TrEMBL record:
Pathway: Bacterial outer membrane biogenesis; LPS core biosynthesis
UniProt keyword annotation of RNA-binding present: no
UniProt source species: Cellvibrio zantedeschiae
Compartments where located: Cell inner membrane
Catalytic reaction annotation: an alpha-Kdo-(2->4)-alpha-Kdo-(2->6)-lipid A + ADP-L-glycero-beta-D-manno-heptose = an L-alpha-D-Hep-(1->5)-[alpha-Kdo-(2->4)]-alpha-Kdo-(2->6)-lipid A + ADP + H(+)
EC number(s) reported in the record: 2.4.99.23
EC primary class: transferase
Key words of the record: Cell inner membrane, Cell membrane, Glycosyltransferase, Lipopolysaccharide biosynthesis, Membrane, Transferase
Domain of life: Bacteria
Protein name, as recorded: Lipopolysaccharide heptosyltransferase 1
Sequence similarity: Belongs to the glycosyltransferase 9 family.
One Pfam family it belongs to: Glyco_transf_9
Length: 349
């Protein structure tokens, strides 16, 4: 009787951000489909462990507090890191994949007890120095979406060609959620001021949606975002917002329930797209070409006549006074009716 092959123990290093984590899910689905015996652990920033646990192919999410340790840079942080590393090295891995391609992620990959470390080569890694820490390096073109880059990296490492169809692999976690065909979710917050859309535009869009018979719920995650939500509700009293901050899983349930989602360049917009809800994301200072929403049910919307400075990838708009919180021209030029028409088209498909 032929014995089954030994499990392939894999450690993935992809610590952040939220959108980057969702972009990695299809590669995980591919890998598990081609190597069912793979046991996959994933090193991820502690705030995102909840998300990694959603994917059924992940054996264990290993939380790390690297952001905090690098910010504090004290004796306590160094002691915590050494304890974390000691715990990590209790497990031996056949291969570690650094899918982030940064110096910091390469150092974490190097900390593991592993037979080999693999990742992008110097022409493909986001920070070329990272590739010097790997035993094996792979060239993957930067001129494609991040989802496909990661899928191709995994395919080259493990000897298969990814299928054309994407599988984020997380919908089964939310099969209990009932779709509400008249519910819309608006994601108004993001980490950069230059990515924000004006409250006036959100108010007008909300008014249009309500006039068309939809219920609108506005997501918020900070006191500043809650204030924006309240200003929209003041203009459109039929709109609502959650009373308290919600967990990522609770937000995901609302995104699954919704008939459509409109958001900014933020992780929760990527989450909505990964959950296959019709989703529109608004882009200005950043480019959707390589890291935008992906899939036929999504759309990345920009101003109709792009400005010469787009995308600037800056947190401060050069056309506005320093520390201004006004909406930059690249975002202000995206009009509510255009957003609405794009969403309704996606919801009909």
């Amino acid at each position: 009787m032929q014995s089954s092959p030994a499990p392939l123990r894999i450690l993935l290093v992809k610590m952040s951000s939220m959108g980057d984590i969702f972009h990695t899910f299809p590669a995980i689905s591919d890998l598990k489909a081609h190597h069912p015996n793979a046991i996959i652990d994933w090193v991820v920033e502690d705030g995102f462990k909840e998300i990694v646990d959603w994917h059924p192919a992940i054996n264990k999410a290993i939380p790390i507090s690297l952001r905090r340790w690098m910010k504090e840079r004290g004796t306590k942080s160094w002691s915590e890191f050494r304890a974390w590393k000691k715990d990590l090295q209790r497990e031996h891995y056949d291969v570690v994949i650094d899918a982030q391609g940064l110096f910091k992620s390469a150092m974490i990959a190097k900390s593991a007890n592993a037979s080999a470390i693999k990742g992008f080569n110097t022409k493909s890694a986001r920070e070329p120095i990272a590739s010097f820490f790997y035993n094996q390096r792979f060239r993957v073109s930067k001129n494609q979406h991040a989802v496909e880059r990661t899928r191709q990296l995994f395919g080259q490492i493990f000897g298969y060609t990814p299928a054309p169809i994407l599988n984020f692999g997380i919908n089964q976690n939310f099969s209990h959620v009932v779709k509400n065909p008249r519910k819309l979710m608006f994601i108004i917050g993001t980490s950069w001021v230059t990515k924000l859309w004006s409250s006036f535009h959100w108010q007008r869009l909300t008014a249009i949606a309500i006039e068309e018979g939809f219920d609108v719920e506005i997501m918020w995650g900070s006191m500043e975002e809650r204030a924006i939500a309240d200003s929209i509700i003041a203009a459109c009293p039929k709109a609502t917002r959650p009373l308290q901050r919600m967990t990522i899983t609770a937000i995901a349930e609302k995104l699954v329930e919704a008939a459509g989602v409109i958001g900014l360049d933020t992780g929760f917009s990527h989450l909505a797209g990964a959950l296959e809800t019709p989703t529109i994301a608004l882009y200005g200072a950043t480019s959707p070409v390589k890291v935008g929403l992906i899939g036929e049910h999504t759309s990345n919307l920009q101003v109709e006549q792009p400005l010469a400075c787009m995308p600037c990838h800056k947190r401060q708009c050069k056309w506005l006074p320093e520390n201004s919180h006004d909406t930059p021209p690249c975002m202000n030029g995206i009009k509510p009716f255009s957003v609405w028409n794009t969403l309704t088209t996606k919801m009909k498909n």
